[in-house]
Amino acid sequence: MRDSDQPLPPAPAAAAPRTALRRLTPRDVPLGGPRAMSVRRTLPQREQSLIGAWCFADHYGPDDVATTGGMAVPAHPHTGLQTVSWLFSGSIEHRDTLGTHALVHPGEMNLMTAGRGIAHSEHSTPETSVLHGVQLWLALPAAHRRTAPAFEHHVPEPFTVPADGSGDVRISVFLGELLGRRSPVRTFTRLVGAELTLPAGAVLTLPLAVDFEHGLLVDTGALSVDELAAEPGEMVHVPLGAEQVRLGAGDAPVRLLLLGGEPLGEQVVMWWNFVGVDHDEVARAREDWQAEREVAGGERFGSFPPAWPGSLPAPVLPPLRLRPRG
């Protein structure tokens, strides 16, 4: 038998190719108001609706509050999700219909579980001169979408790991687990959320959970992820199966967020501030909010705090049925 007739040996298992990494470019979205503070939104977008249960990522600042007016978001509702507030500079005041009145500062996390329904407001504090941070959402799986609303505040303890090149990488794990550090905050799917800061010229080989997909959101500096370059405001999507990524900082320090998780495994409908299983569930949430905001609260979204002068009306639903994502 000729060599060419010999059966071929099985191909070795290959790691995920570097070309599987994708750079997600944000779009600018005004939050509203006379001076319209602008945010950079990387999730959701047409080619990537979710990363694990992460379904929404707004990145803003650094903004001069004297120019932009800062954050001024009156009372508004949420259903079917968890909100995550994480700051790099400035402070935000949070009030909700559970009776919570809390502040969040840089390096701290506010996590609000909307579940069946909650309303809250968010305002940058009078002492804030520069506002800079992210607002993130997690979609709740169908089995927990109508869970009781809740609020948690957590201050993770930063730690360092050595980097190739120069200095140490500073890491704060605010959700899930990374490099043996675990956040005590409750989530409803397996996931990770962490801030990493690399000194200029540093290289870090970061182990990843192979059953997670990940997003690396660049806040400051020029980041390389394996061979893919990303600028501030961009997110690099790392698909399932990656055991590690090689992170590199250029001539300046890099700060980024690592967001990852197991695939949600189901489709969701996202519209305005609601996450639901289908169009009808979201439409019901809108109707309930419109009715309850007229009387300053109710059974689903709770009683409004006396400090609230008013609330945001829900937009009109589009004339077509909302399509699921994921």
Mean pLDDT: 92
Element order: H for helix, E for strand: EEEEHEEEEEEEEEEEEEEEEEEEEEHEE
Question: Hey, roughly how much beta strand do the residues contain?
Answer: over 45%
Unreliable sequence segments: 1-19
**Helical region count?**
2
- Number of separate strands: 27
Q: What structural class should be given to the helix and strand makeup?
A: mainly beta
Helical residue percent band? under 10%
Radius of gyration: 21 Å
Q: Describe the largest sheet.
A: 8 strands, antiparallel
Q: Termini separation (Å)?
A: 51 Å
Structural shape: globular
Describe, in short, the structure shown.
It is built from two helices and 27 strands.
Description:
The protein is mainly beta. The protein is globular, with a radius of gyration of 21 Å. It has 2 helices and 27 strands. Strand 24 (269-271) and strand 25 (274-276) form a beta hairpin. The longest helix is centred in the C-terminal third of the chain and has 15 residues, at 279-293. Strands 1, 13, 14, 15, 16, 18, 21 and 23 form an 8-stranded antiparallel β-sheet that branches. A 7-stranded antiparallel β-sheet has the order 2-3-4-11-6-9-12. It has helices spanning 65-68, 279-293; strands at 22-24, 27-30, 38-43, 54-64, 72-78, 81-89, 92-96, 101-104, 109-113, 118-124, 130-139, 150-154, 159-162, 168-178, 181-182, 191-198, 203-207, 213-220, 223-225, 228-230, 235-238, 244-249, 254-261, 269-271, 274-276, 297-298, 302-303.
Topology:
Layout: E1 22-24, E2 27-30, E3 38-43, E4 54-64, H1 65-68, E5 72-78, E6 81-89, E7 92-96, E8 101-104, E9 109-113, E10 118-124, E11 130-139, E12 150-154, E13 159-162, E14 168-178, E15 181-182, E16 191-198, E17 203-207, E18 213-220, E19 223-225, E20 228-230, E21 235-238, E22 244-249, E23 254-261, E24 269-271, E25 274-276, H2 279-293, E26 297-298, E27 302-303
Antiparallel strand pairs: 1-21, 2-3, 3-4, 4-11, 5-10, 6-9, 6-11, 7-8, 7-10, 9-12, 13-14, 14-15, 14-16, 16-23, 17-22, 18-21, 18-23, 19-20, 19-22, 24-25, 26-27
